[in-house]
Amino acid sequence: MIETAKNPIKHKTAGQFEETRFEKIHNVIFNDSDEASICVAQEIAALIREKQSQGKSCVLGLATGSSPIKVYEELVRLHKEEGLSFKNVTTFNLDEYYPMEKSNIQSYHYFMHEHLFNHVDILPENVNIPDGTIPSEDIRDYCLSYEAKIKDAGGLDFQLLGIGRTGHIGFNEPGSHYNSGTRAITLHHITRVDAASAFLGINNVPRKAITMGIATVKSAKRIVLLGWGEHKASVVKETIEGSVSSQVPATYLQSHPNTTFVLDKEAGSMLTRNKTPWLVSSCEWTKELTSKAVVWLSEQTKKSILSLTDKDYNDNGMSGLLAEKGSAYDLNIAMFNKLQHTITGWPGGKPNADDTYRPERATPAKKRVIIFSPHPDDDVISMGGTFDRLVEQGHEVHIAYQTSGNIAVTDEEALKFAEVASSIDPNNKQAKEIIQHISEKKENTIDSPEVRQLKGTIRRKESYAATRYVGLEDKNVHFLNLPFYETGTIKKNKLSKADIDIMCNLIEEIKPHQIYAAGDLADPHGTHRVCLDAVFESLKILKKAPYMKDCWLWLYRGAWHEWDMHEIEMAVPMSPDQVLKKRRAIFYHQSQKDNVMFQGDDAREFWMRAEERNRETAKRYHALGLADYAAMEAFVRYEY
Ligand code: F6R
Fold it and tell me: Is 537 a known active-site residue?
């Protein structure tokens, strides 16, 4: 069941109902993380008020990271607009990097003040955050005193948590003991990789931290853990459904009597009741669920779809589906045809062909197309083959790079170009200034506007090289430089009218029949999500314009993960030659080669990921019993 903000988090026991029988931790799944965060903030506010009415103080254990940001935003709103006071609140933060100065913008000290403490009336003496400046020989005593202080305050009434992909809570990495208290720890490599973008590169991420222990966390009377996004789905499943293990420290929460995991749809998507609901109870067999189940069954049994038997369905919890839809034979044929109809070498539609069962319309034969690319390179990484076909098949293709992507260019790369400019013209004042700025730059300081400008230019020129290679004229390449991105730091602004106006103007000018946009929501630093929101917002505004009736929106993925097979509505095959052409187009984005700054959890370069993913999609089609292509790019049509 999906909860809503009007429907507060209910306290049920995990495994109480049939559909949760695999689950060992109570959890609720919301449509989106904003709604869920508001609900959690309301629970915290209610607790603060209840304690106030009893004349008692309220002791909160708090977390940092991306997960709780919206919860803090809502608490600040409740303070400002609804008079919620924090005067009776004492807080203990879970952790802090070590060593770490309080004033450092990457410190959790800075984070907490920026997101919460500076905006509410909490008494400064009631704020406790592990101190990253303690001399190493004093850490033990300091940690013991932190524990004692929590006890003296009356213990934690409420503990807010996020979860790391290693299964850490706080910074209790794999191997942590269930009985551990506040202590210094060494961060897991994956945790450092995840923090790399905030620190502008993994080498800047501290190796150690001070964290509350498992026992400290579990001493809280109430625990709420937040989990958002697909990248958390597998650790969430392991934690909720797996066995208790020091290798996934969050599993220790299974024995806490009052814990709730608050998840969004994506983070909860791998729980058995969501991923394979037919294995837990009887289902309502919608078209989507049927497709999902048949693909799953085929992959599970390693049989092509047309080879599945009644017995396969019955043995795998799908007898209800057979009873409803007839025999395996009918189901198999229907599903096979559905998948077959998604495959096309004509992503812009095949002229003069019957398009009844094709993913795209035959008319108009020549379409106007906008490919929105969040960064300058997502176009070729995620849909280079399709882009190439659209150009080759004579459509009017426009590429619109939504952001400048300047932050992902290293200083070394920028220095190289500034030095080239300076060697061509030794009097080039700007080049000299840039060289000086980069040479004197201290760790983690923001680039000067000139350096940012140069970094953006590098990416622009690389993009032209790639689009020219695919055969596109420069006039069809648009650099939108959306302002939300131009902060010079990883933290981006919210979308504003200025961003949406730029998007709308381009769409209005081109009046496209097709828009392609990145639906790659697992982007570790969120830019793809914002860029997609910018597309949705713009389409909401322009929806009523007559030309929009003919405009279809296709979402691509590719840099981080692929659509599920049952979701794909258009699959564009690539020949081995096209795979090579796509690889070369990606290579033109040289500043992103070798030294991928924001690669998330995947160590491969972008061209390798894209190639392997496209090959994998083709292999999966083949394993389901369809034709054997070298690679395939996949799309989902989005009705706006
Ligand atoms: C933060 C903390 C960590 C994070 C976890 C998830 O104080 O202790 O356990 O909660 O690493 O981080 P995000 O929320 O950034 O995904």
Answer: no
